[in-house]
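Hello,

I think I submitted the flavin-adenine dinucleotide job twice by accident. Can you confirm which output corresponds to this input? Input:
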Amino acid sequence: MPGFTLELDEDQKTLQTWLHEFATDVIRPAAAEWDEREQTPWPIIQEAARAGIYSVDLFASAREDQTGLSLPITMEELFWGDAGIGLAIVGTTLAAAGVVANGTVEQIVEWVPAMFGTQTDVKLGALAVSEPGAGSDVSAMKTTAVYDGASDEWVLNGVKTWITNGGIADVHVVVAAVDPALKARGQASFVVGAEFTGRGLSQGQKFKKHGVRASHTAEVVLSDLRIPGSCLLGGKDKLDERLARARERLSTGGIDGSSGTRSQAAMATFEASRPSVGAQAVGIARAAYEYSLDYAKDRVQFGRPIVENQGIAFMLADMKTRLDAARLLVWRAAWMGRNNVPYTSGEGSMSKLFAGEAAVDITEKAIQILGGNGYTRDYPVERWHRDAKIYTIFEGTSEIQRLIISRAISGHKIA
Ligand SMILES: Cc1cc2nc3c(=O)[nH]c(=O)nc-3n(C[C@H](O)[C@H](O)[C@H](O)COP(=O)(O)OP(=O)(O)OC[C@H]3O[C@@H](n4cnc5c(N)ncnc54)[C@H](O)[C@@H]3O)c2cc1C
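Support: Only one job matched these inputs. Its output is below.
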């Protein structure tokens, strides 16, 4: 075993350099345009596919890295380029993670490549969990999945909301209630292929957003959607066993069926993805820190660069300290996740919580350092600030992360 080190190895450095070049040459120059257009940046995703960045291989090999750091490195570089385009490129990986967390080996092999498509025929994936009445409290989910034994089909009904790539994805992973009485423990994940778009699955409202505007966010409407039995992730036998255990525990008063936060089916996906989401926030924060440091050295007021004022220099010192602290929390959680070290103190949540709030703070300070320029769309920092804000909201709000951490450290039922 090598001794403790935070030095990246040669493979990680090569990955970082390669992605940084793509972010610099392809993503950054396109960022302002796609933010204004508020559309999926297909040409950029296609270019990422041609370069091998939008691919199963990249994300699968990043997951193999024993240190766990390749995935956060990937996220940080892409999101340093631009968060909206970054999300358009990596949105599929959340759906892929949903299949990997809940599916059989056969399902993973079939569906994960189908979400990415090929270098010349790009596809997208979407993970549909949230609903109008079930955001933080996924146990309140109303979307139902009813099994029709005669045809061996599942029938799904409900409305999903705020879904990244919702309605435009080729593969939707949908979490639905099979036994609503069991709340979170009665839910299961289903995979819905492209042939059902327009045949039971359709896009509802597309949202106009504050930030990450190059990423498509929309409602997904499921209306008597009939999918084959084989689309239940994990298979029916496993689900039946799980439901029987949950019913048994419910009848003996062992559980109330409500997790209060994320459902069982969704939980595994969200837990595993938290360090990666934190790393995205680190990428945005780093972009804002670097830009404002350069600006502060160039901009002259009262006959000297503004960085020579303690008021500005100390702000930059705080930004850099928070940025590095956020990355270290992300790397720790990524290493723990990769090496199956349990998050006994909610370390995954800590990384996402701290990095998300650091990104909001750092991008806000960057606007301050740029003064009037920072407030205009001629400069990128206002966009980075708008983009950063989503990191205290999606994939579990900051309050929900604090709930998870406080429950983990106290062992008490904090509400
Ligand atoms: C751009 C974007 C992309 C998204 N992508 C996806 C996606 O791909 N798939 C998907 O399924 N979902 C997605 N979401 C949904 C996202 O996960 C939810 O918005 C998020 O979980 C919060 O739910 P909510 O919006 O209903 O907020 P609410 O749950 O209504 O929360 C509102 C406020 O109340 C607070 N609150 C709620 N409960 C508690 C509590 N117990 N204690 C303290 N405070 C509490 C929250 O922290 C928040 O401040 C996306 C959202 C956005 C905006």
